[in-house]
Write a structure and sequence with these properties.
The protein has 153 residues and is mostly helical. The protein contains 8 helices and 2 strands, in the order αααααββααα. 51% of the residues lie in helices and 4% in strands. It binds heme C.
């Protein structure tokens, strides 16, 4: 009898609890399901394979860097890259063109705004940047020369 009462109380409590005041960041949720398997939950990467997604603040603050980041998420990347003097060759960064534009915007803002310490002149990514990336005829291998033109990170 008491047990049933306790269970009922727990149920009532669960139902009546208010929804969290702060909505979870949709970019964080997307990152957990789409990216963390390779780049790790904190974006620290895996040595020799998956590059860290930290140290991106400088790119996130320049037009060319922002364009590149939107394009990489859309088209992927294929080729050995260097980050902080270390090489990464994970085989392939898949493209995410199948996601909604807004989902890619959320992902970019989570990566550049939460995993990285945004620079002073940082502005969040918007749909226009991702739409332009989507319209560009690019592919994983074609992204490598685009990356090579950016300042080293
Ligand atoms: C299957 C593993 C895998 C998944 C999943 C993945 N990536 Fe990658 N990512 C890579 C690899 C590998 C590279 C480096 C390119 C290479 O080795 O060919 C890379 C490169 C990148 C780069 C470019 C870094 C640079 O220095 O140029 C960014 C940005 C990036 N990934 C973000 C993401 C985000 C955000 C997600 C989730 C939407 C994601 N990745 C999902 C494997 C992955």
């Amino acid at each position: 009898m008491t047990r049933i009462f306790v269970r009922r109380c727990a149920l009532l409590l669960a139902i009546s609890l208010p929804a969290p005041a702060v909505m979870a960041d949709p970019g964080a949720e997307m990152f957990a399901t789409q990216c963390s398997g390779c780049h790790q939950a904190d974006g620290s990467g895996v040595e020799g394979m998956y590059p860290p997604l930290t140290g991106l603040s400088a790119w996130a603050a320049t037009p060319a860097g922002r364009e590149y980041l939107a394009q990489v998420l859309t088209h992927g990347l294929f080729g050995t890259i260097e980050v902080g003097g270390a090489s990464y060759m994970g085989g392939l960064m898949p493209g995410f063109a199948h996601l909604k534009i807004e989902e890619i915007v959320d992902l970019l803002n989570f990566v550049t705004g939460t995993l990285n310490q945004p620079a002073k002149n940082y502005t969040p990514f918007d749909a226009a940047l991702v739409e332009a990336a989507r319209a560009a005829k690019l592919s994983g291998p074609a992204m490598k020369p685009v990356r090579d033109k950016l300042p080293k990170r």
